[in-house]
Structures are given as structure tokens and as C-alpha cells.
Amino acid sequence: MANLTVVGELDHDKLTKLPPLVDDIQINFQLSLDLDVPSTFPSSIPEPVRTFFASMSSPTDILTSKLVSRVKGTDVIEGGYNFVHILSLDIGESQPPFPFVLRFPIDPDSISRSQTRTAVGCMLYCQRHPYLNIPTPTIYAYSCTHGSEFIAMEYFDGDTLSDVWLDLPDEEKEDMINQIAEIMRSMRTKTRFRMIGGIAPDGSACPLVDGVDGGAGEVLVDSFGLYNTGPYKSVREYLQGTFDRRYHYLDQMLHKGTLPVKFKEEMSNCLSHSNPEEIFERVNRLRDKFKANLYDCEYPFVLRHGDLHGRNVIVSRSSPRRILGIIDWDFGGSHALPFVDDDFELAHPDRDHDMDERVKHADELSHYEFLLHRLVGKRCSPDAELSYLMTATRLYVLDY
């Protein structure tokens, strides 16, 4: 039986061995970062690999190279935002092909201009701070230039946790829960930042990529420069940014004619009790009310992943299973403690099984997810007003 240690609410005033505020996120941040091959590779990376990636500036360059082929038995993975290719690089007859992962946006115009930058920056941040014990893929090359974004990175020969969870023996499940809990606690207790924002590859701050209600329309309006997209000096600045984002998106969509009509149609189809114009009026009132509200709060700014669940955790194929890497940091960066990763979805009940078996799996998943929540501990004491402000502009809340 694995040793499970349950902790209570984190007391951030009594944490020991906490490093001083780190300077990786700085007040001065870059608005664009072009191709930048990391200056240091692990010694195990062959020189031909370094030379190859140093000459690559776009995903097309990589995919059309005669030295690159698809790993046998793999298909192109189409995720929510990116295509993912599992490839191998021919580095000479005397050495086996070098496997790597290439990911790039499905539609560069539908994602935040900071999304690739943040994904790379967060992975490099974890690698620059090994005391965190958060494994992430080694980055071989990347470009954050709009229209040619890509990341070429380490391939982990493993499984996603969600794919194998239901088949793990109980002892391995408990051990895996401990490993996840340690990573989540490390993000909360071993990091401190001066601002809320994404982390660029060079360690500077960049605009926060907020996945909540962040569709393609919001992303387009983000690029108009109408409001602050981060980094933010306080929770209040961040909250003001969320109100401004929702207000300007609706205003541009309904009144300014700058967005395709499909966005209005999509919103109308999502609403059950209201129309988009009514939603706009409610957001306008909430925004004005917040401006007159003196609410503010003080919380530590810590590392978050932003999309942490079993599909973004790669584990070894052999027992005892261990976590090889945490991937897809697109929504990561520094955020206030109440906004850190909390609920962790291990897997989904298998739809191929009958209803009784699916209910059994669901009960088991709930048990282990509750256990994980206890192991990690509460984020902080409840703050009713902050909880309200965090959800006030969500579409399902506004639709009444």
C-alpha cells in the first residue's frame, strides 16, 4: 500500500525553505519573440540534432525536410488548438533515428498571440528550476512568430495518464496520486512571482493566456489593444481585465462590426434565456459596478498550469509507473493562489463498457480525485466576493 499523507489547508505564512521572489517574470516584457533555439541542450543530444534544429524556422521547414519521417504506427493528432506530429530525424547511419514531437497551431488566428510563447516559457521555467521536480519536455526549437509558430520538443515514450488509469492496480494508483499531489503542491508552495502573467521563453512576463471563455472571437479582440491583457500587478487589475475583455468582445461583435457574424450566431445558439444584446447590457452594468467597487485582495502569485488533467500527464509504460512529463502549458504562468490548478480530472469512464461498469468507474474516479484534493490541500481560505467576481462574466451565469 502506498504511503498517503493528507495535509490540511496550506498556511503560506509558515512555509519553510521557500525561495525569495523570483525575477523570471519582470515588469518589462517583450511583445514578440522570434525563433530562438535554446542555448543549452542536455549532453545526450547529438550534435547533428542541434545543427538540424538550428536551421529550422517554421513547421513547414521541418515537415518537408528529407531527414524527417513520421514514426511508424503514429497518426497526426488534432487537439483543441494544435496539430501534433510524432516524428523521427535521420542523424546518420551510425546512430538510430532521433524521435521528437512537433506541434503547431491548427489556426494561428484562433489562438492567443502569447499561447505558444507561454507554453515554451513555462516548460523552460520548470527546467531552469529543478528544485520544483516538475518534469517537462526538452525544447529543441521553437518560433513564436505569428503564422509560423511551432514547438519541436522531446518525445516521451509513454502513455497519457487518462488512457491507462482505469487499468492500473490500486497500489500504482495511490502512488500516482502522490506524484501528482507533489507536483501540484510544488507549484503552490515553491514558487513566487511579482506579477500575474504568462512566462515568455526568456523568463520575462507576457500577456496572460486565460482559457476561461476564451474563444476565437475574444482572441481577435485581444489583438486590438483595447484593454490590458497582462501582465497584471494585482488581482484587481486582473479582474478589471476580465470585465474589459468581455465588454469589448461583445461591443465589437454587436456594435462595431469588426467580427464575423458567426460569433454572434454561435453565442445566440448557446443562450437559453437571453439574447446577446441583453448579455452586453448586463456585462456593461457589472463592469461599471466593479469600477466603483473598492474590492482588492492580497494573495501570493504562484505557478499554475491552467489545464492540468490526466490527458496532459505522460507516464511510463512499465511498472512502477512514474510521471515522465507534464505537457501543454498554453494557459500556464503566474497567477494568484485562488486561481491555481485545483480540480484534477484523472480520466473518463470507458464508454465501451456497459452502464453498470461505467457507474463503477465513475465512483472509483470520484474517490481518487477526492483523495488527491485532500492530499494537495485547500488553495486558500474562502473569499466569497472574489468567487463571485471570478464567475460574474461567465456566459452561463449571465444567461438568466
TrEMBL record:
Pfam short name (any one): APH
Protein origin, superkingdom: Eukaryota
Domain called Aminoglycoside phosphotransferase: residue spans: 99-331
Gene3D superfamilies linked to this entry: 3.90.1200.10
Assigned keywords, A-Z: Kinase, Transferase
GO molecular function, one term: kinase activity
InterPro entries recorded: AGP_Transferase, Aminoglycoside_PTrfase, Kinase-like_dom_sf
Protein name, UniProt field: Kinase-like domain-containing protein
Organism: Boletus reticuloceps
